Structure formats: structure tokens, C-alpha cells
Amino acid sequence: MVQYDSVSMIASPARQVLFKQQEVLQRAAKIGSCILFSRRIRMRISSTRLATNPKVSVSPLLSSLILQSPYAQQPQSRFRGRFLHAMASDSPQLGVTNGKPTYQPRYIDIGINLADPIFRGRYGGKQRHPDDLAAVVQRAKDVGCTKLIVTGSSFKSSRDALKLSQEFPGTVYSTAGVHPCSSAIFGATHPHHHEAEDDEHTAACDPDPEKPVPADDEGTPDLQKTEQIVADLDALVRSAGPGLVAFGEFGLDYDRLHYCPKKLQLHSFSHQLDLVVALQKEKLEFPLFLHSRAAHADFVSLLKEKFGNNLSGLARGGVVHSFTGTAEEARELMDLGLYIGINGCSFKTAENCDVVREIRLDRIMIETDGPWCEVRPSHEGWKYLVEDAKRKAADEEQVAAAAAAATVDGNSQPPATDAPTEPANGDVKTTRQKRPKQQQQPSKKGQKKASEVPERFKSVKKEKWEEGCMVKSRNEPCTIERIAAIVAGIKGVSVEEVAEAAWANTTKVFQVDA
């Protein structure tokens, strides 16, 4: 049964509300308002009912009254997120803990480099620990991240990503394209054909300050090689099968020109967009998985050149992932109908967080971009994880206190005890104050302080790898819950609202099974 203070509704097997709207209005009138709730709303859902009826049916009138209540109008109202989630036609099942509904989050990591050999235990070409990719995927599922889109950033990683989609069907999906940092293969002086790529690792998200940056006009495209690369990419896309859900990752990255000069990046991006246009004419339509770093003007200019000023020629839309641009750039991308992907790199500075605050929920997607882009204590966004941890701890204390109070109230006749009785005057407070306090044990020398943000999974250095543990500094998709928590903290909304908005946006664009 679902109970709302003075209003009760039963979710029948037919998912119908047994109370008529007139009866609901009468009950609302009894509390002196057309708004049903003037205090905190308590929701209790029978787990048995939800097992067979995960979608609770509520009349539009009642829903409107609920959402107009003062409590539900609060920006960070957890109830609002839970209620919207419960009312959604495609909502997953709610859980129940201690008689209270518990939202079971669901996430899709839109950008995870699972094809990187780091997730197989290989670092710099050397096997440092056993292959634990299956455990990485399972940890993601354990936090509700049931869909992973593996980024293809070169021919090798694109093929490896497609293999992973076959290894983990229904969970892992893939993209295919040539990343701007991998676009040197289009150059006349590149020593290797793309089939013989010798760099097995994906590019880190941060630029390398020690690498020399070429001149803007450096890098001569090889037209014959370009023709072959585009033909091979075309063949890869056509033969990919259902695991392929997007074209990319491709775009422009002027922060890391040491990987590929600007001229070659523009050449690579332009020719891959031409392939998208050609494939669309044959009704082979894919959304775009885009990359734009410190190159917004050129990036948008090329998109408009290929698909029109409002991108009306782009059949399935796209997402600009790992966004670190300005608020003005974000607004232009949203106005063009594109989505924006947020990960740990989006929270480094206060300015970054201000930008995230401006990104609309109906245009947001979330990602980890592992094994890179983890959220670090030095990031501005870390403080929102600290606040979230404190809030959860406070909630747990309230639940524990309520449970203890309920236990005391339920014992009308406490069992006899040999313990000393309280004073006749009933001064219990005085007696309790006289009890000696337990002495706190001094901390051992060198003992590490507990993290202000608790880790869900133990993490160890790769040299001390343990089965079931995360590897330090190897970002995993299970950390996507931190991305959602930070976005929620920045925007002043609930985690539920962020998770559900991102889920809806992602399933709409990439059409992964809901």
C-alpha cells in the first residue's frame, strides 16, 4: 500500500487507484487546502505489491496536487525525485528498506574506454595483474550502471569495443571512429598504416606539457591514404552488427596537438563527417559521439557546414562528451539540439562547476571516461561528494533513531531486569549523565584517516592487486554514481532526477535497450 499521510491509495494488480478523484478532493479539503501535503510526506510501498506491479497508477489530478505541495517543490526534495521516478511509465522497480521506499538508481556510462588494456591488467605493454575486466563490469552493475558504451577512438579500439559488445551482450555497446588524437594516420609522414597501430592505450584526458606542440599548419594530409581509411571505416560500420550504437569518437582537440596537428585533425573530422552524410543517404543512421576540446568555433563550423546551420541534416543527433567548455559554448551546443556528456574532468574548477549548473537536465548525459578522468579531492566538485556523504550519514542516523524509538514504543511491558532501577524521582537524565563515558582509544601512529568520501569498493595499487578490488587511479564505470551525485549537488536537485534524466536522454539517442 502507498500511504501519503491522510491519503491512501492501493496499487491493484490492474494498477488502478481505488479512490475516486472526488474522494481524494474531500480528503484534501479536510486538511484545509487543495494541496495534499503541508509536511514531510511518508511513502510506504509493499514489496509484494511492487514485485507484481512496479508501475503505480495515479490520476493526473492527484499527481498535480502532489507535485504542488511545499515539500515536493523544494529543489533538493528527495521525495520529488522518488515520486517522479515511481510515476514514470518505464520506471524500474523501487526497493523497500525498513518500510521506506529506496530508489534503485540506474545509470548508463556513455563513455568508457573498456578496450584499453589497462582493464585487462596490462600497463605499458606489461602484464601487472590478472585480467579483471569481468569484475569491472560486475562492479558497474552493482551500482546500477547496467549499460556501458565503449568508446572506439581508432581502428584497433573500435574493433576491440565491438568484440566487447559481443562478449557482454545487452550490457556493453560500442562506437566506431577516429579520435582527433589518433588522426595522425591521415598524414603523409605517419610511419604506420592504421592496421599496424602500435599504441594500444587510449589517450589520457589531460594534455602532456612535456610533449612538443607542432605548428598550426604542420601535417600534410595524404589523400590516397585518406581514401583508404574512409573506405575501411565505412566497411567497419556496415559490418558492425547491433552492438554499434554511435559514430565516433571524433572531433577536434586543440589541447593535445602533440598527438596530432590541427591541420590533420580538421582533415580527419571533415572526412568522417562526409562519411556520416553518405551513410545517412543509405538510411544507415547513427548518432554522433563527439569530442571538442579548446576548438569550439572550428568544431561548430564544421558541423554546420555538413548538416546545416541548425544541424537539421543530422538524422540522429549526438553528444559532445567529456565537456569542459564555457557556459556560452554549452548553450550553443544545446540550442543546436546536441547533448552534453559530463565526467570528472567537468568538475575541476569552480568555473567548470558553474558551467555544469547551466546544462539543462533534458540535455545531459553522464560518463566516467575511464580509465581516465576520475574525480579527485583536488577538484572543485569533490566538495559535493563530501556534502552527499554527510547527508547520507545523517539520514542513516535518523533511520537508526527512528527504528530504536519504534522498538521502545512497541515494548509496552519491558522485561524484568536485574539492573539497578532509576531513582524514584524519575531523574533519568541525571542518572545517565553519571554513567562513565567509554574512553576513545587513541589512534595508532601512522594510521590513515578515514576518507571523507567513503569508497563503495576497496581499491589497491596495481602492484598489490586483489581479486574483487578496484585499482587505484584506474577509473571504473562503477564510479558513475559519483558523477550523478556531484551534478545533483551543483544543480541543487536530487540524484534521482539526474539519474533519470540522463537515462531517458541516453536511451532516446542511442536506443540501447531499456
TrEMBL record:
Record has Ribonucleoprotein as a keyword: no
Task: Tell me the SUPFAM superfamilies matching this sequence.
Answer: Metallo-dependent hydrolases
Q: Which UniProt keywords apply?
A: Hydrolase, Metal-binding, Nuclease
Region entry Disordered, spans: 193-221, 402-457
GO function terms (MF aspect):
3'-5'-DNA exonuclease activity; metal ion binding
One cellular component term from this protein's GO annotations in UniProt: cytosol
Q: Return the similarity comment.
A: Belongs to the metallo-dependent hydrolases superfamily. TatD-type hydrolase family.
Name of the protein described by the UniProt record: Uncharacterized protein
Q: Which organism is it from?
A: Pyricularia oryzae (strain 70-15 / ATCC MYA-4617 / FGSC 8958) (Rice blast fungus)
